[in-house]
Amino acid sequence: MKHRRDNNTSVSVTLLIVWLLALSCDACSPTCDCVGNYFAYCDRRELTSGHVINLINQLPVRITYIDFSHNFIRVLNKNMFHRHSDLTTISLDHNVVSVIDGGTFHPLLRLRKLFLHQNQLPQITTDIFSHLKLLQNLHLNNNHIRIIRDSSFAHLVNLRELYVNRNFLTNVTSKTFVGPIRLKILNMSENNIHFISDFAFASLFNLHKLFLENNEIALLTSKTFWNLTSLRELDLHNNKITSIQASHVDPFRRHIRVLRLSSNRLTYLSGGVFSDMNSLKVLDLNDNQIKTTEESVFWHLDLHELRLQGNRFETVTREMFLHTYSLRNLDFSYNRIRAVSPGSWAGLGQSLHVLNLTGNRLMDLSKSMVQGMTALRMLSVANNNISSIESGFMSELSSLQMLDLRANSLGSLVSRDLTGLELVPRILLEGNPLRELSGFMFVGDIHVSVSLSVISTDDKTVNITWPYKDGNQLYWSVTVKNLNRSEISHDVTIYLQAYMTRAVIPELSPLTHYYICVRPVFVDGSVIVDQIGYVTTSGSDEFVSQTTLRQDIQVSRSSRPLPSAILCCLIYISMLLFTPIP
Does residue 25 register a pLDDT over 80? Predict the structure, then answer.
């Protein structure tokens, strides 16, 4: 009862406060929703410029926040805000604004945030923002801006964030950004910028983040980023830069943490270009045309992530990472690497967690390739041409959690050559012509991926075999699913004796697509090896031999093992019904 009385009291107090606020509020336009004297929501009302002139005079004079977004306002009249000098936030985004009269924002001496994105502004002139000395956030992105007049932001001395991305700017002059000395974030991405004048950012010595991705920039000079001494993040992704020199990055060398140069036209990295970047954590060089680098280019960096995907490296040399000690994630995928020199990762052994060599031209995996990599957790060598793995390859990979060997040329994997593989929680082997996966006694929470093979099919049966052999399974569980959309799918489960390595699946329908999964059942229910194939039966007068399957094998956590009495009955019944195929 006391709890109920407390709740009633709280509700009564809340209603009283709302009532008192209502009494003290000035009248609000019936078109908008007002909260007290301070917030007006006029968004999504199909308002035009003419409506707004009349409507705004009906709003409380003391209002601090107004939302006119998602309307059809085309012109901002110079007298629009003359009665509302207390405004701190204005949202005019998602309109069709193409004209801002000179002096429109002059009365708004307290304005902090101005949202003008998603409009049709063609240019920015010097008289638009000249009185907004307290403005901190200005959003001009997604307009039609082709020109920013010199010194248009000169009086925005407190501006912290400026967004002019997704416009049609073609150049940046030395006077474009004169003035906003406290700016922290500048986003100019997705324009058509092809030229940046020397000293273009000279006033922005407090800038932390500069986004210039998806432009047409081809040339950098030693003065392009002059005076950006506080820069932490620079994004130049997807431009046309052909060369990066030490002098280009000297202004921000001490503080830069994230540097993105991906999808440019770099062909070579000279030594010293990244030297003394002691704060650099992420270096993205993906999708360039880099074939070689000076051997010391990555030395003594405290990098956490290095991205080199989609370049033209053919070898990894021992010297490349000789003095690189903190790297955690290294992506060398989709290059042309044929060889990794012994000891190439020697300096990374205690730090590297992820190594991605997917999509290269490796033909074998040697023990020396992973020498000393005791901290490695994820190794991907998928989509190479690997046909053999040297005995002892797993001996130093004591921390490995995932091994991706998909889409290679492996024909056989046996436990005596890969001691330790059975302890890796996730193993991906689909897409290999694997005939044998034998001798592995998987224990613990293990996930293995492999493909079964179809020997032959006819209109009513499928003859299959699978690679996992000589394990510690109790029996085989075979699941058959009819995948034809025109028919109701019924799952059929068949149980086979543990020593069987092939079987004929009977009583199928002609011209029907089936999913077949052969799963070994273990005492340890946390181990599952799903050997999967997809097959289509032939017509009644046809016989089709199929050796190519969609190759997926998944090992995941299973439910609890069957009780021993039921298990024994199932095994006994399966022995009566099924006999091994010679």
Answer: no
